[in-house]
Amino acid sequence: MKKPKQIIKEAVSKYKPISALLMFSGGHDSLTSSVVAAKILIELGISFKAYHGDTQTGIKETQDFVKMICASMGWDLVIRSPEPPYDYESYVMQYGFPGPAKHPEMMRNLKLKPLRKYITHEVKSKPYARENVLLISGARAEESVIRLGYQETTTKDDSRVWCSPIYYWSKDQCEDFMKANKLPRNPVKDRMCISGECLYGCFAKKEEPAELKSLYPEAWERLDRLSSYSPWKWGQNPSEYKKHNPEGQYDLFTGEVAYMPMCRSCEVKRVSPQPDQS
Known about the structure:
By secondary structure, the protein is α/β, with parallel strands linked by helices. Helix content is 45%, strand content 10%.
């Protein structure tokens, strides 16, 4: 199994990126990979910044955590958000809350489009220049992740080179690394077992609305305000609603994408067996 430094060095040697981005969602895997990669990138003389995608659906405390970590590490932080008509509110107002089938579209609109725009117009020497950018991901080789097709430490998506330096690390290794380096923990992750940067609701568990309302009322109020535009509630499967309410169905477009590195953990929920919550 390859070590983080070897994985990054091979990616740099093969694709010769002009710079790198630490893809920092606020979760503990992305924190671990960012800290590991930052040291290696400095040794290799590769300039980098931390990147956080503000989906405008997340919990404020998670973004505050990202800002705190980046400030303490001395990392330049870039935050980018989706723009209308691709933002979450515009979607809900037109189609209702998204269900599992719409997760790829949510990921593409709320995360990938702002990232692509930033890379194309702000990272490259000129728009659409044939230059590669290294994106440091916290993806690990869990069994469920492998079933989704994440079987490589490095994957090229146009000019975006997704690199997972901790691909072969276990959850325990990440936990040990955080403890050894005295890295702060995201309280949202520890409270709700999610990093909290994206609350699309596509794969929300039945208990999440109550947890959000109790623990993070500001985030819940923002989502609840949108419920007036949707026949079904946040976190519900619209297919179930439509099965019992066939009249006036919403026109739901498909939007499959082959590679979803920024929403890996949610797609894991789709292919992993879920406990009976009835």
